[in-house]
Design brief:
TIM Barrel; 17% strand; alpha/beta; 8-stranded parallel beta sheet; binds nickel (II) ion; single chain
Length: 255
């Protein structure tokens, strides 16, 4: 059993073979996939995928790249999408000061607004943080998001910060970069953060793990992330697969 806690199977790179990719994921031992939204369009696509495929659940939200086009109407549409049965989170939301595709001020405003939305509808949140570690932490702390549930998607920060997150009931999700030779920081996170606080993800089609690095990523490859965690922690693959699946089900409140 495995749970890919963050995928973008709605991406056009899967248009040719989406059915086959999802079938391959199932055959490789995956039980669940969370498809994250990144805009209104991809949030609707995520919901559609969750209605078509039993193993897929959806998150709806607007990525910091795209918040510059947001307004309160967008929030209302997102809110109505959260009524769908298999929408289990708001995300991915957060801050991205690496690309700054949206002005920082807008990013902060809509990050906080989407956290409030998640609180209104009582759903956990999925966080994107790039080059905004401290500010992301401060906002999450201020909003006490441990109460609704929260996961740091594709975590790339320090082990010290990760410890501050788990203290507040926030999960850490590990992606493909863990398998790269130079990924010392995230390897330390995988070593020192207890398995009870870890999730695994692909973020496919991005961040392809070794041995497929350079190719399109897909959900079936989440096993390479779980294998890397098992090796680093010196425990079995089965234990990592089972516990991270249990963690994700608890966070997303899937029975
Ligand atoms: Ni993503």
């Amino acid at each position: 059993m495995l749970f890919d806690s963050h995928a973008h199977l709605d991406d056009s790179r899967f248009d040719r073979d989406r059915d086959a990719v999802i079938r391959a994921a199932k055959e490789s031992g995956l039980q669940y996939i969370l498809n994250a939204g990144a805009s209104l369009t991809t949030s609707v696509k995520a919901v559609n995928l969750s209605e078509k495929y039993e193993m897929i659940y959806a998150a709806v939200g607007v990525h910091p790249h795209d918040v510059k086009d947001m307004d309160e109407d967008t929030i209302e549409v997102l809110k109505s999408l959260t009524n769908k049965k298999k929408v289990v989170a708001v995300g991915e939301i957060g801050l991205d000061y690496y690309y700054n595709h949206s002005p920082k001020e807008e990013q902060r405003k809509w990050f906080k607004r989407q956290i409030e939305l998640a609180k209104e509808v009582n759903l956990p949140i999925i966080i994107h943080d790039r080059d905004a570690n401290q500010e992301t932490f401060d906002i999450l702390k201020q909003h006490q998001v441990g109460d609704i549930g929260c996961v740091m998607h594709c975590y790339s920060g320090s082990v010290e910060l990760a410890k501050e997150y788990i203290k507040r009931g926030i999960y850490i999700s590990i992606a493909g970069p863990l398998t790269f030779n130079n990924a010392k920081k995230v390897q330390q996170v995988a070593r020192e953060i207890p398995l009870e606080w870890l999730l695994v993800e692909t973020d496919c089609p991005y961040l392809t793990p070794v041995p497929y690095r350079g190719k399109r990523n897909e959900s079936a490859y989440v096993r390479y992330v779980a294998e890397a965690i098992a090796e680093i922690k010196g425990i079995s693959f089965e234990e990592v697969a089972e516990t991270t699946t249990k963690n994700a089900k608890k966070l997303f409140r899937i029975e």
